[in-house]
Amino acid sequence: MDADERDIYHYMKHHGREFIPAQEVCRRVGGKRRFRNNQDWARPALARMVERRILESDPEGRYRLKPMPKQEPTGKKWASQEIVKLLEKKGKPVDKLLTVVDEDEYYESL
Q1: pTM of the full predicted structure?
Q2: pLDDT: is 102 or 80 the higher one?
Q3: What is the DSSP string of 19-81?
């Protein structure tokens, strides 16, 4: 992901499963100077992210992060990074834990 896509990703990550209009992304992500210079600056990045299947769009032109596929058969459970660090210190197995870093790596790999 390039810098624009990464900024959009982090903005969309905070909105969860909510669809966000492209104009709102352009306004909120790049700052007001960038928005004043070009009001549609994020549209090419959004199109690339849809093409790479990081985002999904609805017929109205709104976008959201595509949900991660369920990983229930592997038996992984979500845990914060602090909990993983504590478990590693105690020598407990952490290979069946899913963290925020794993989630970010998934979207980076798309």
Answers
A1: 0.64
A2: 80
A3: -EEHHHHHHHHS-HHHHHH-TTTTHHHHHHHHHTTSEEE-TTSEEEEPPPPP-GGGT-EE--H
